[in-house]
Design brief:
By secondary structure, this protein is an alpha/beta fold. It has ten helices and twelve strands. It has an eight-stranded mixed β-sheet with strand order 6-7-8-3-9-10-12-11, with helices on both faces. The protein has a four-stranded antiparallel β-sheet with strand order 2-1-4-5.
């Protein structure tokens, strides 16, 4: 049983590198450092919003936590058990407790299966029907996401984008997980449908005491659904803390630039922070602080030494920033 003083999920110094191969012998000549030394904790019932530019590594991190991408080094602990070091049989059991909601429901739902088959596939594989018929189990899951049982014998292409995402959420709930990794689950939906899906996720979190890792570009959505927020840049965490603290008082220059790009009625256009250049390639990250080539406050010291670690701010305990200028 989970202890109250121990986080449900602990991610410790996780690295996910993808090899770059060249030549006739297909030798590894370099690596894409998609995730490069990320650590955080998550308690049961808590939501961590994960934000950053495209290519920063947030989706790769979510997939690595669930074992969908191989971890080069580091540890992912569920209730104190190291997921990365477990034998496959035990790892398969833990996977039931952690599920993913993908960005594109049309691509993630098998078009050849009916809704009944989609929602009960995992239940049959893990033998979790426990006396229920498949129709009863699928009907219960549909009710959880606000859909009727007349959907049971239809196929994914017969539904709208919002309905397909509800089916994806229902499928993720089928194994009664404790953690859902939501990879931009509303980015492909209309604004009105986005609000419905966000409200659904909030209701399900309260009903089943779920933990979420919520990956998104939309900072306004992250603010609504998250208690904690983490900002990633080039495979590293650069700022993390309570959502109100980070959103109202961002301390890392990259977080400040991200938030300045969010449209706010009445805010002068001159307050927008325009970053110079492009994000460097994760196959050839810069030395020192990974953000220093684009940082408006960088000094010569920022370009040397190791990557600055996340450290708590003296005036805001629990608000962590990876910046030499603040530590």
């Amino acid at each position: 049983m989970q202890q109250q003083d121990r986080p449900f999920l602990e991610v410790s110094d996780v690295r996910v590198w993808f090899p770059i191969r060249k030549g006739v012998l297909n030798r590894v000549v370099a690596h894409v450092r998609a995730v490069d030394g990320v650590s955080f904790t998550l308690r049961q019932g808590e939501t961590l919003g994960l934000v950053g530019e495209s290519g920063c590594g947030k989706t790769t991190l979510g997939r690595a936590i669930l074992g969908l991408e191989p971890v080069r080094s580091g540890h992912v602990l569920f209730d104190g058990e190291d997921f990365t070091a477990l034998p496959e049989r035990r790892r398969r059991h833990l996977r039931r407790r952690c599920q993913m909601v993908f960005q594109d429901p049309q691509a993630s739902l098998n078009p050849r299966l009916t809704v009944l088959e989609l929602l009960t596939e995992g239940l049959r594989y893990h033998r979790l029907l426990h006396g229920e018929t498949p129709e009863q189990a699928a009907g219960r899951l549909l009710a959880d996401v606000g859909m009727d049982t007349d959907a049971l014998y239809r196929y994914p292409h017969e539904f709208s984008g919002g309905q397909r995402q509800r089916l994806s959420i229902a499928r993720a709930l089928s194994l009664k997980p404790q953690l859902l990794v939501c990879d931009e689950p509303v980015s492909a939906l209309d604004v009105s449908v986005q609000a419905q899906v966000i409200n659904l996720l909030l209701d399900l979190r309260d009903k089943y005491h779920l933990s979420y890792i919520f990956i998104s570009h939309d900072l306004s959505v992250v603010r609504i659904i998250s208690q904690q927020v983490a900002v990633m840049y080039l495979g590293h965490m650069v700022e993390m803390g309570p959502v109100e603290a980070v959103m109202e008082s961002p301390r890392h220059p990259y977080t400040q630039a991200l938030l300045s790009a969010v449209p706010v009625p009445g805010r002068p256009a001159g307050q927008r922070i325009i970053l110079k250049g492009e994000m460097p390639s994760p196959a050839a990250p810069p030395p020192g602080c990974p953000f220093h080539p684009r940082c408006p406050h960088a000094t010569e010291a920022c370009a040397h030494g190791d990557v600055p670690p996340l450290r708590s701010l003296p005036d805001q305990p629990g608000h962590l920033v990876a910046c030499r200028l603040l530590n």
